[in-house]
Amino acid sequence: MFYLEDANLKVGIHPKGAELQSIYHKGHGLEYMWDGNPAFWAKHSPLLFPIVGTLKENTYYYKGRAYSLGRHGFARDMEFRTESGGKGSFTFLLVSDASTRGKFPFDFELRVMYELAGGSLHTRYSVKNPSEEELFFSIGAHPAFRVPLVPDTDYRDYYLEFGHEETLSRWPISKEGLIETRSLPLLDHSRRLPLSKEFFSRDALVLKHPLSTSLSLKSDKTERGLRMDFPGFPFLGIWAAPGADFVCIEPWCGIADGVDSDQQLVSKEGVIRLGAGELFERTWTLSFF
Fold it and tell me: What confidence tens digit (pLDDT) does each residue in 92-116 have?
């Protein structure tokens, strides 16, 4: 485990998957991250790469060849190298090799950079295409936060507050993990989404192109909470394992296949197309109160 630390925060990161596993606020005496209880969900904040969500039949096609990838891809299960680091920042690196090319036939350099600054935690994803061929991929975050955050509060005492008033639909997920063709109403000119474990009885709430680029976890019964800012992420997932005391706020550049997908990688919804030598970067930031 590697640790970042400043006057306010101590942050733990594991090199497997470059996974954020702990955010402890010293002044509040409060751990914000889910503890990874395997009875519910053994992860904390897996990195989703080179796909987000599930492929139809766990298969995609590129240049006439079929490739198989499990849900959310392989990066979360691979050991990253520590490229640089110190008390206030760490950079983790994963480079394509023979083991990745068998299921994802592209060269890539994937960096995950964590930095403490201004009382906030900044997470930056950087994907470089070092080859002469185009690179097609998706990437996303999956951090899980404790709910309830403090004693004497309940899961239903908390809500998510969008940065802007939203009229939003959710896109249901099929039993195969694919996005259905019709959406369902979720918010009507509102910023507040009350939390309920029943919300996640059919997997995540999947949102496409919300106006907001921030989402806060709040309660009227405590002043403690957090805010995530995620500019440049067009999709958003909100999820919890059945019965578990956490909520995941998941900004995505990419999305699961639809039930009517043609399984062609180049036409996949939300896929990022990176030319030779090009660099893709996105940052999400957590602030705590």
Answer: 999 999 999 999 999 999 999 999 9
Token representation of residue 164: 């802007």
B/e letters for 46-73, b = 16+ CB within 10 Å, e = fewer, are bbbbbbbbbbbeeebeeeeeebebeebb
Parse the chain into domains and list their residue ranges: 2-288
Distance in angstroms (rounded) separating the CA atoms of residues 174 and 163: 29
Which residues sit opposite 74 in a β-bridge? none
User: Beta strand pairing status for 81-85 and 89-95?
Assistant: antiparallel
CA dist list (Å): 59 to 50, 71, 256, 257, 270: 13, 10, 12, 10, 17
Give burial (CB, 10 Å; 0-12/13-18/19+) of 234.
middle
Q: What are phi and psi of 267, to 5 degrees?
A: -110, 10
- Residue 279 makes CB contacts below 8 A (sequence gap 6+) with 126, 127, 128, 129
Given a contact cutoff of 8 angstroms between Cβ atoms, the answer to whether 213 and 231 are in contact is: yes
d(CA 245, CA 41): 10
* Distance of alpha carbon 178 from alpha carbon 184, whole angstroms: 15
Helix (H, G, I), strand (E, B), or coil: what is residue 273? strand
Give the pLDDT confidence of 195-228 residue by residue, as tens digits. 998 888 778 999 999 999 999 999 999 999 999 9
pTM: 0.95
The closest alpha carbon to 71, from 264, 256, 270, belongs to: 256
pLDDT at 85 over 90: no
CATH number of 2-288: 2.70.98.10
